[in-house]
Amino acid sequence: MLWTSLLAFTAIAEAAPWSDWLSKRQGGTTMLRFGCAQVVIDRLDPLVNPGSIPSPHVHQIVGGNMFNATMTTGDVSQGAKCTTCAFSKDFSNYWTANLYFKARNGSYKRVKQLGAANQFSDNFSTKIDGGVLVYYVSAAPGKVTAFKPGFRMLVGDPTKRTADSKLKTQNCYRCYTGPNFGGDNAAPCAGYGSVDSAGLPTKQCKGGIRSNILFPTCWDGVNLDSPDHRSHVAYPTSGPANFLSLGGNCPSTHPVRIPQLMYEVVWDTTPFNDASLWPTDGSQPFYFSYGDNTGYGQHADYVFGWEGNELQKGMDATNCMGAKCKDMKNQVIDTAKACQVKKTVQENQDGWIDKLPGTDMPMVM
């Protein structure tokens, strides 16, 4: 079982944070941790640029097949017919910007993703061949209220290019020091100064780069969205919750505690570890699809789409760790991968390109 595997791994890990995190949660807290394969890679963003075809930059999207350019309101679980996620009743959509490698000659190529680390994961999540690993944690103190139908939110700011120490636990990167996820021995965003950084790693990572994005854990209890897609949610009064912590008190303006949602993406940068391809000055050559090579602008979008009370069931459960929980419904990986959305914007997705895909770049029709 995942719980046993995690305990066994943390017993031999060089860093203690995972052990600390687990020991704090043995009293009954749930951590749903599961993979979602890609449903489509496309230049659409129905949250920030609803109706725009194309949107300004490329995203990788996972989850339900209801995803489209105009899904601005409503319960997506009512329209989706399938999902790429391990839990078969999770028709939510989760998306992030894609990462690209910029070669010395100025051309770009999309960085593909890997599955989840074997030592932590179920048989489904290690076979997603890209996509996103999703976490929902029922962090104490107090009851955790699952998101409501129609709920949406955005975390991060794509315009940021400098570090913000107050928000570093919201966004982090891990440079895998060896193959097979080498160096993955600390809880997400816990090893700053050792295994984690607030920006993209500046050195070649032998096993790839992992990125984590954490969402706010407090809600105003009224609005399912807001004009900036952020104001209806908030961080605890103590600031962004460290994934190791149990979370602080919610502010009076946002009194409802919601699940700690986190995305985890493993970027397979290993095909680009040839030093002859890197800039002559050795500078960091990876760029997100919106033109950011610092990593500080990392952001993520979320549209809730769990069917019925399925997510609340998980948040009310005790000691659920991983991709199985009580009688929550699962599916096999082949069924999940068969769930796809037809690509809308036809662009060169996997070859070398002269520019990052954007509105100034001619589309291949």
From TrEMBL:
Keywords in alphabetical order: Signal
Sequence ranges assigned to domain DUF1996 in this UniProt record: 45-306
The keyword Electron transport belongs to this UniProt entry's keyword annotation: no
Entry-linked Pfam families: DUF1996 (PF09362)
Residues annotated as signal peptide: 1-15
InterPro entries the record matches: DUF1996 (IPR018535)
Signal keyword on record: yes
Name by which UniProt lists this protein: DUF1996 domain-containing protein
Organism: Polyplosphaeria fusca
